[in-house]
Amino acid sequence: MGVLHYFNVVGSSPPSKDSAVQVIYQDTEKVSSRPSKVTPHQRALLLRGPREPYVEVSDHPTPSLDGNREFLVRNLVIGLNPIDWKAPDFNFGIPELPYISGRELVGEVAISPKRRSRFKPGDKAIVISTDYRDLRKAAYQEYVVATDFNAARLPPSVSPEAGSALGVAFVAAALCLGVCAGLDFSTIADGPDLLSMVRQIDPSRLPEDVRDECLHGIDKESRIQKGDWLAIWGGSSTSAFMLNQIARLAGLRTISVVDVRKHAVKMATNNITRPDIVVDNHDPQRAIEIVRSATGKRLRFAIDTVGRETAGHLLECLQQHYATEDEPDVSTATPESAHLIGLTGLPKSSPPANVSFHNMPIKLFHEVPELGEALMLWLERLLSRGLLVPPSILGVSEGFGAVNQALDSMRRGEVSGGRVVVRIP
Ligand SMILES: NC(=O)c1ccc[n+]([C@@H]2O[C@H](COP(=O)([O-])OP(=O)(O)OC[C@H]3O[C@@H](n4cnc5c(N)ncnc54)[C@H](OP(=O)(O)O)[C@@H]3O)[C@@H](O)[C@H]2O)c1
């Protein structure tokens, strides 16, 4: 049976007494390195039905490569995401059964891509598997298919555990900011201008369900820029951790709504990762008032990482942006549009005039190779230059057999302010 190691992370919640996980010791570098000999069959975790635990098998076919941009990695560490337990519990995002889950990992390259590539056998790579319909790319198996445009080389300064836990949140944050809010990353380590990129691509190549967001989500004149405020609700999530860092690197001012009792100390200790202003979420109406007054009623951009209800709170924060008779100082004849971006839900009602609702277009990452590649090359530069701090690793489990227990901890809300990862020996 796998064991979960809990680190001493300031501000993180320890597991409860009756938790299935054990507190063992602090440890960061235990990833095994053995020569890769790819076998026709492999170990994998299968989901056989909704609301069932994952089952380990040892005779699952090793996935095969297709095209000249795919390569095969031997799995070293899996980063666990909320979708890994939410999909089976709520029966969504499971296109076939048995299903293989898992959205991110660090692996060692076993077979490199056919075409010239920056990935060579033996290299360690961060692999981000947003393409959940392609089971060959899922993380819950010994050998995983990666594409060179959805993977990044792991720099020596980043541990495999940390590398396995940052990719999905990075991509989500970059697409929220770069496409939905139109933030140009070119001033940060020569990052991409995603909005210009998607508008130069032949529209027929953009996935149909995200085409409108890409082409008409925001006017060029309304793009978020240096000095603008960004409000984030759910500031303790890993996505928010990445959003806040990228936003501040671009010169935005961030205001983050979190459970201050849980997260204040940790958030205050690191100057690179702390938001400009932290607001407690305990009393939502009070939090809305604070966001409004702190941003001088000029808030135009807000991102929710929690759900529909808290996205509604952010909508209230944004609506204050418009002029009132009492406060003509913020009045403009035609107020600039405001933008509410949801990672996991938006208010049910239609958006009011001058507010646009945005769903983060995650599909762009794996369906538009040049965009995915631009993000991965940028991630490599950000990590190797130490510009991006990886999320806290709150626990490390060993072996596929430990995944169900670790997901149970997430179900119980015990994983807060960081990620749990699973090493594959
Ligand atoms: N559409 C996409 O492609 C995409 C991509 C990335 C993320 N997402 C979604 O965005 C959301 C955030 O993802 P993430 O990976 O950033 O999250 P995360 O790092 O796992 O953090 C989630 C936060 O949710 C809170 N939480 C955890 N368990 C909870 C519970 N039982 N009840 C209420 N709150 C709970 C915790 O806040 P406290 O610290 O206050 O406990 C935790 O910090 C998720 O819903 C995820 O599925 C979607």
From TrEMBL:
Gene Ontology molecular functions: oxidoreductase activity, acting on NAD(P)H
SUPFAM superfamilies cross-referenced by the UniProt entry: GroES-like, NAD(P)-binding Rossmann-fold domains
CDD domains: enoyl_reductase_like
Keywords: Oxidoreductase
Family named by the database record: Belongs to the zinc-containing alcohol dehydrogenase family.
Pfam family, one: ADH_N
Name recorded for this polypeptide: Alcohol dehydrogenase-like N-terminal domain-containing protein
InterPro entries in UniProt: ADH-like_N, GroES-like_sf, Lipid_raft_assoc_Zn_ADH, NAD(P)-bd_dom_sf, Trans-enoyl_RdTase-like
rRNA processing among keywords: no
Stretches assigned to the Alcohol dehydrogenase-like N-terminal domain: 68-148
Entry's transmembrane regions: none
